[in-house]
Each structure stands twice: as C-alpha cells, then as structure tokens.
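Hey, weird one. I pasted the Flavin-dependent thymidylate synthase sequence into the form twice and got a warning about non-standard characters only the second time. First submission, copied straight from the form history:
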Amino acid sequence: MPITPDQQAEIDTLRAQPQPTLRATAPGMEAHLYNAYDVLDHGFIRVIDYMGDDAAICQAARVSYGRGTKSVQNDEGLIRYLMRHWHSTPFEMCEIKLHVKLPVFVARQWIRHRTANVNEYSARYSILDREFYIPAPEHLAAQSVINNQGRGEALSGDEAARVLAYLKDDAARCYDHYAEMISDEGQQGLARELARMNLPANIYTQWYWKVDLHNLFHFLRLRADSHAQYEIRVYAEEICKVVADWVPAAYGAFEDYRMGGATLSGKAIDCVKRMLKGEEVTQETSGMSKGEWREFMGVIG
C-alpha cells in the first residue's frame, strides 16, 4: 500500500482547509496539491508546495526589457523563445516541492541530480517499513548485449521465476535480520544506524525534493527519456503530468524543443546543407565517427 492511513488522513485534512492567498496560483497545480499518485508497487509522488507559473517566467524575463514588451510578444511566444535560445534563468523563478516514496537504488540514481534541496527519511532515527520493490515479470530483463547500462530481452519461464524468488527471499531475509538486530527484547539491540547497512537496495525510502523548473526540466529530459531506466522513468513520467498542468506553456516548449527536438553538431549541420544541395554524403565523407554518424542518421531518418 503506497499511502498509509495516516498519510491519507493528512492529505484529506490539508485539502479540506484551503487558505486564502495574494500570491499567484496555477489552477492546474492546485488540483494536484497533496494528492498522491502511485508509482511502482509501493511508491508515489505528491506535490507539497509550489511557487510561480507561466506568468512568473515571463515576468522575470521582461524585467530586463521594461514595460510595454508584453504587447509585442505574447507569453507563450516569449516562453518558446526563451526555451529555444537556452535562456534558463527565467525558468528558475518557478519551484516545486515533492514528497516522493521510492526504492533506495532509484534514490541513489536520482540524487545524482545535485541541483535540488533534499531531506530524506532517516534510518538512524526511525525504523524502515517492510516494503520492497519487486519488479513485475515483464520488467525482468537480461543485460543488453549492445549497451553496458541497459536491458535486453525479458527473462521468461523458469529463469524469471528463479530471479523473482531470489529477490523476494533475499529481501525478506535481510529485513528479518534487521528487525532482529535492532530488537531490544532480551538483548541490548544494535544501533539503527548500524543495522540499516544490512538492508537491500530495493527497500523503500522517502524524501522531500525541492527544485526549480529549469533544473526539473533537465531532470525530466534525462529521466523521462525512453532510454532511461524503467524504475526511475515511471517517476519522471508521473512528474511530467503534474508539470504539464502547472506550467502548460513552458512544458509545451520543453516537450517540443528538449524532448522532441535534437541538437546537431557543426559537422552535422554541414552535412545537412550538403545533402540539401543534392550531394551524396556518407560516414566516410562526413567527418564524423561511426557513432556520431549513426546518431545523426537516427535524427534525420
């Protein structure tokens, strides 16, 4: 169960007590506040707080130009211009604070994005719940033969059953030993900060994660990509849904220029120009390595 009864009661209480405010609000985000959205088997994300909206991005951008510029260019057009030309500072005027419940191994990958404020559940002071991420059979895959950090075909039959049994048995055994070590019934009991070292990386942790929109877009560009690891990608995809309702113009520009766009090198642009003139360009005449050429051909089809 991703949300405990106590957490759900807290959510219900918070949503039942709306507060008047003079600050700008985003109707789309207001609908998401405090609601928890399930991810994986025991995880979730929920919005705790936010600041700013599409208008805040434009307000920050226009401070350099003075009054009167809004009539020249509408907000959506300005936001697309900022995104297109990598003017990132105005996007930093928006912030979001999320409560996330996620497996430890996903958290360790997530925390590599060092541009957020994080406060994680402490296993030094509290006892972790007996909840582990166990992949669905379709997400048990062999090592990719072409990508050292990717997956290949899904395991099947006896192999899949054997792996699932290992994951479940090992997680249960480690937690049993953890609980026994910290128990003070008839023994001193090992300190929690030491006992936690025996817990598996698929146990769930929780944190508050606060980040500005510019750095959030960077996180989503990498983690919502189809090549990202499934277990972190599903969190990023759920966050994308929230951001699309929060700052629809900014998210639309992000989706177009970052998620759906491509960056071409100087050599690649030169090749495109030569092709448009009718010249036949090959990898050997392009000046690119085989890897660069393969990626270039993937972009232009």
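That's the output from the first submission. The warning seems to come from a hidden character in my clipboard, not from the data itself. Strands lie at 36-39, 43-51, 95-103, 117-120, 141-143, 151-154, 204-212.
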